[in-house]
UniProtKB/TrEMBL annotation:
Residues 6-235 form the ABC transporter domain. The keyword ATP-binding applies. Pfam families: ABC_tran. Belongs to the ABC transporter superfamily. CDD domains: ABC_TM1139_LivF_branched. One of its GO terms (molecular function) is ATP hydrolysis activity. The lineage of its organism: Bacteria, Bacillati, Cyanobacteriota, Cyanophyceae, Pleurocapsales. It comes from Hyella patelloides LEGE 07179. This is Putative branched chain amino acid ABC transporter, ATP-binding protein. PANTHER family: HIGH-AFFINITY BRANCHED-CHAIN AMINO ACID TRANSPORT ATP-BINDING PROTEIN, HIGH-AFFINITY BRANCHED-CHAIN AMINO ACID TRANSPORT ATP-BINDING PROTEIN LIVF. One of its GO terms (biological process) is L-amino acid transport.
Length: 235
């Protein structure tokens, strides 16, 4: 068994005939906590969507746990252990918090219908709000619900797209702490797309920077220098 959990090899992907990602190479090891950085429009969301199968990979390959999954449909990738928490969270507003959580079961293909108690250990707030409509939660609570829903299918890797966007600072801190716990205690590998450099530095050990559809820098977050930040991340 190799150390690497997920590998993108020379991946080109996009929308219809229009490529957005060009020759992306990326290796994510088991247990990594990684942030994916880059200015608006460089392809971060498209990269996550290509990993979960919402954008077609037209060239190159995607390898997960030593298996080539380039052509697998999204539901199969979910069952193999890839969880995707999209930007904007996509909570169903008129469904209860409980029913929103249960949607996580459908991704796993499991028949169990009991919410595992660990979900409430990671997100105690959810327990108090189970009968409420999802749409009535605050933005930060909805983000926590979305992460919890992703956790329901027992993923090996979680892909999060800008989980702190538009969320009040106290909950940003909670989300940071919870993601660290999920990574440490459950050994789940995490890739987070993030705009806030400080958050990324505190959360992740490794970083990738994208520009114009390609990876242009990577390393330990301790090596994320101001010159890289100025060159690729500040507007
Ligand atoms: N649904 C779509 N159809 C066509 N092009 C898209 C679509 N969504 C995004 N794009 C284009 O893909 C590029 C990368 O977008 P995206 O992956 O959303 O970047 P980021 O997440 O880094 O802001 C942009 O040029 C954007 O205009
Ligand atoms: Mg995006």
């Amino acid at each position: 068994m190799s150390m690497s959990l997920l590998e993108l090899n020379n991946v080109t992907a996009g929308y219809g005939q229009t490529p957005v990602l060009f020759n992306v190479d990326m290796t994510i090891n088991k247990g990594d906590m990684v942030c994916l950085l880059g200015r608006n429009g460089v392809g971060k969301t498209t990269l996550l969507r290509s990993i979960i199968g919402l954008n077609k990979i037209s060239q190159g390959s995607l390898v997960f746990q030593d298996k080539n999954i380039t052509k697998f449909p999204t539901y199969k990738r979910s069952r193999y252990g890839i969880a995707y928490i999209p930007q904007g969270r996509e909570i169903i507003p008129y469904l209860s918090v409980l029913d929103n959580l249960k949607l996580g079961f459908s991704a796993s293909g499991k028949s169990s219908k009991r919410i595992p108690s660990e979900i409430f250990e990671f997100f105690p707030m959810l327990k108090e709000h189970l009968p409420r409509q999802g749409g009535l939660l605050s933005g930060g609570q909805q983000q926590q619900l979305a992460i919890a829903r992703g956790l329901m299918c027992n993923p090996k890797i979680m892909l999060l797209d800008e989980p702190t966007e538009g969320i009040q600072p106290s909950i940003v801190q909670e989300i940071e702490d919870t993601l660290k716990r999920i990574n440490r205690e459950k050994g789940i590998t995490v890739i987070v797309v993030e705009q806030k450099i400080d958050f990324a530095r505190q959360l992740a050990q490794k970083f990738f920077i994208m520009d114009k559809g390609s990876i242009v820098a990577q390393g330990q977050t301790s090596e994320l220098t101001d010159s890289l930040v100025h060159r690729y991340l500040t507007v």
